[in-house]
Design goal:
Blueprint: H1 4-13, E1 19-21, H2 28-33, H3 35-55, E2 60-66, H4 89-107, E3 112-118, E4 120-122, H5 141-149, E5 156-159, E6 171-172, E7 174-176, H6 177-193, E8 196-202, E9 208-209, H7 210-221, E10 227-230, E11 239-240, H8 245-251, H9 259-273
Parallel strand pairs: 1-2, 2-3, 3-8, 4-7, 5-10, 6-11
Antiparallel strand pairs: 6-9
Helix pairs in contact: 1-3, 3-4, 5-7, 5-9, 7-9
This protein binds uridine-5'-diphosphate-4-deoxy-4-fluoro-alpha-D-galactose (UFG).
Length: about 280
């Protein structure tokens, strides 16, 4: 995405009406260790993309932002109008890009921009053909659980059980990747007909704790997930889940997959792909 000439060729060879911009580095911990890598890649690629879109008169864009822009939320569930604040370079790149898009819109009201704030995407396509199976040690909860279930990793470390939550472990709004994908289609359909810039939470509105995720995974998939309680992870917050009203109202979109679908499809993907 940083190669302007190649991007121009893509725009020249295809009749592009709208862009979904997913590209970017996404590991929080790595962004703290290598901030310049994150700023260079995530911001440069976006600016290049926006310049090329401008050259070709393409003014519709859906951008993958993150619930990370809410920082440690003051109120739950989190509304799109909540106060923003980021705590790491990865999050800062998401917020910068949101602001760049806002300025682009202010400069030219012909743009249609949908900013999607993802909560915690997990799961896989039910076919078992599309999913995640990282080759290195996963940072995120679900891919880590999967590697414990398959025996690749000995046990899960639960980062803290002394948070002010239902069982002391961290609470997040996990959303099935297929629901997330459908949310992009809804956003695309919306911006195709409406100019402006707007922000949408893509979550389910339900908060599940780490313990609840581990239990559901074991029960649904009939597999052991040994775990140990470990210290809190730096930068983690206690609780985060979405108010989903706005996306329902404006995009006519809501998540339909439940926790069972999410943990089942996540495991099914690795089982199928390791056969
Ligand atoms: N957790 C563990 N053990 C692990 C991994 C995670 O206990 O090995 C816990 C975390 O402490 C947290 C929960 O599981 O309570 C979820 O952690 P993830 O790393 O899966 O997800 P995060 O909520 O930390 O981060 C996600 C995305 C980020 C995004 C952030 C903010 O990965 O890109 O949500 O919304 F910035």
């Amino acid at each position: 995405g940083c190669d302007k000439e190649k991007l121009r060729v893509v725009f020249m060879e295809n009749g592009i009406d709208a862009v979904i911009h997913f590209a970017g580095f996404k590991a929080v911990g790595e962004s703290v260790a290598k901030p310049l890598k994150y700023y260079r890649n995530n911001l440069d690629s976006t600016i290049t993309l926006l310049e090329v879109m401008n050259e070709f008169g393409v003014k519709k864009i859906v951008f993958s932002s993150s619930a990370t822009v809410y920082g440690d939320p003051e109120e739950l569930p989190i509304k799109e109008t909540a106060k923003l604040g980021v705590t790491n370079p990865y999050g800062a790149t998401k917020l910068f890009i949101e602001n760049i898009l806002k300025d682009v819109y202010i400069s030219d009201n012909d743009y249609s921009i949908a900013i999607l704030r993802y909560f915690n995407p997990i799961g896989a396509h039910e076919s078992g053909l599309l999913g995640e199976d990282p080759s290195d040690i996963p940072n995120n909860l679900m891919p880590y659980i999967v590697k414990v279930a398959t025996g690749e990793l000995p046990h899960l470390n639960i980062f803290g059980n002394d948070y002010d939550t239902k069982d002391g472990t961290g609470v997040r709004d996990y959303i099935h990747v297929v629901d997330l994908a459908i949310g992009h289609i809804s956003a695309l359909e919306y911006i195709d007909k409406n100019k402006g810039i707007d922000y949408y939470n893509l979550g389910t509105g339900h908060g599940y704790s780490v313990m609840e995720i581990v239990s559901a995974f074991s029960e649904v998939n009939h597999v052991d997930v040994p775990y140990e309680i470990a210290p809190r992870r730096d930068g983690d917050i206690a609780e985060c889940y979405a108010d989903t009203t706005y996306a329902k109202e404006k995009l006519h979109w809501e998540a339909t997959h439940d926790l069972t679908d999410m943990v089942e499809s996540a495991y099914n993907f690795v089982v199928k792909n390791n056969e």
